[in-house]
Specification:
Elements: H1 2-58, H2 72-81, E1 92-95, H3 102-109, E2 114-118, H4 126-134, H5 144-150, H6 155-160, H7 162-181, E3 185-190, H8 200-215, E4 219-225, H9 228-235, E5 247-248, H10 254-265, H11 271-278, H12 282-293, H13 298-315, H14 325-338, E6 340-342, H15 343-348, H16 353-360, E7 365-368, E8 373-376, H17 379-387, H18 389-392, E9 410-411
Helix pairs in contact: 1-7, 2-3, 4-7, 11-12, 11-13, 13-17
Pfam family, one: ATPase_2
Organism: Diversispora epigaea
Keywords: Membrane, Transmembrane, Transmembrane helix
């Protein structure tokens, strides 16, 4: 009996010793992995921060399709926008119709301290595009245990936060940049129009953050837009108080258009006739030059222009027997007399704000935030009106004499 008790005692001691050493080993393993994990997370965060700062210092390197027509004054003005002084406290808005050359000119002006983000057509990829512009890895901030706890999150919701995480990362980098160089970093959001239909909340957050960080002199945002809807939305919000006067980029003037057609497309004899169809709109000039070089006649090219304009008038409900025909005629009459009218007068010609907004969005008329005026959207629209004068006006005598100098950067704030 005593012998059995002694054996049990020895076994008990062995069990206790085994438990002690096992628990000690588990204790050691736990803390070793914990600190190893924390060290790795710290290292990755520091590595990401260094990449962020270097990306901002270097600036986004962009390839631009350089036109044969230099627009030096605009490029120099953009460069001044992209290199703010240390106390700048406002953000910028750049506008102009599609095909006016905004993006090309902006790319030519981007340099050190400037991050360029092109908002993609598939908005769900915005976060990835944002991160790519920053050379930023999305594995930051969280350690492995934290990550394991987050695995239950819905993947779609995770993706929706990427742009916000990228913005927060940019702000960290911008603070470091400001501390080192004593001036704000700059971030450019191109094609913000793509946020207008389904993602206005993102636009609002970007605008609010632009206002807050302009106040704090941390970074300066630049929004680039081609649609009136975006501008009217931004101007209606309190964050507009920190927006600088909008810069509007127009098309080429007649002399530049002739030079563009001659040097870029080797068209000289018929250049003026092509210009009369589309004016100085670069994308329009490129399109008609392409058709002409394919052997199409001026008449056939003009017919295509008329068809495109008809579709716009139809979309705006300005054709005969359509909802806005009579109001549209009054606008056209006013514009034939003065080329531009105030936005207030334009609104007065429609029954309510919904109607005027519907017409303005159809690209028959163009809103100029730099002057707070409305004009015909393009020379193609004027060409259509000349051909359809029996429908819209009694007497039309239009000439393309109201051209905007392509080297003029118009700014105004209301």
């Amino acid at each position: 009996m005593k012998q059995a008790s002694a054996v049990l005692g020895i076994i008990g001691i062995l069990v206790v010793l085994f438990s002690f050493f096992c628990s000690k080993d588990l204790f050691y393993t736990y803390y070793r992995n914990k600190y190893k994990d924390l060290f790795y997370t710290y290292y990755r965060n520091k590595y990401n921060d260094r990449r962020l700062i270097k990306a901002i210092e270097k600036g986004t390197r962009l390839k631009a399709d350089i036109s044969v027509i230099p627009r030096t004054l605009i490029v120099e003005h953009l460069k001044s926008i992209f290199q703010p002084d240390s106390n700048q406290s406002f953000y910028h808005v750049i506008c102009g119709e599609y095909g006016s050359g905004k993006t090309t000119l902006v790319k030519l002006a981007v340099s050190c301290g400037v991050i360029y983000v092109d908002i993609p057509s598939y908005i769900e990829d915005f976060g990835l595009a944002f991160g790519k512009a920053l050379n930023f890895s999305f594995e930051e901030w969280i350690s492995f245990p934290q990550l394991s706890r987050k695995l239950g999150d819905i993947y779609e919701d995770f993706n929706k936060t990427l742009w916000w995480r990228a913005l927060k990362a940019f702000k960290r980098g911008a603070r470091a940049y400001k501390a080192k160089y004593n001036k704000p970093a700059v971030i450019i959001y191109d094609n913000v129009d793509r946020l207008v239909h389904k993602n206005l909340e993102i636009l609002d957050i970007l605008q609010d953050d632009a206002k807050d960080n302009a106040d704090d002199r941390i970074y300066i945002a630049v929004f680039i837009s081609s649609e009136d809807t975006i501008l009217r939305r931004m101007k209606s919000r309190s964050s507009w108080s920190r927006a600088e006067m909008p810069m509007e980029i127009g098309g080429l003037n007649k002399e530049e258009s002739m030079k563009y057609l001659a040097e870029k497309h080797k068209i000289t004899e018929e250049a003026e006739k092509l210009y009369e169809l589309v004016g100085g709109h670069i994308l329009g000039l490129t399109a008609v030059a392409h058709d002409f070089l394919l052997g199409k006649s001026i008449e056939d090219i003009g017919a295509k222009i008329l068809l495109d304009a008809y579709d716009k008038f139809n979309s705006a409900k300005l054709l005969e027997d359509q909802k806005h025909h009579e109001a549209g005629k009054r606008v056209i009459d006013a514009l034939l007399s003065s080329k531009e009218i105030s936005i207030e007068k334009f609104k007065e010609l429609f029954a309510n704000e919904e109607e005027y907004g519907e017409v303005l969005e159809a690209n028959v008329f163009a809103f100029h935030p730099s002057r707070n005026t409305v004009s015909f959207q393009s020379q193609s629209i004027e060409y259509y009106i000349r051909k359809r004068s029996d429908v819209f006006v009694e007497l039309v005598n239009l000439t393309p004499d109201n051209e905007f100098n392509s080297n003029y950067a118009s700014t105004s704030k209301s």
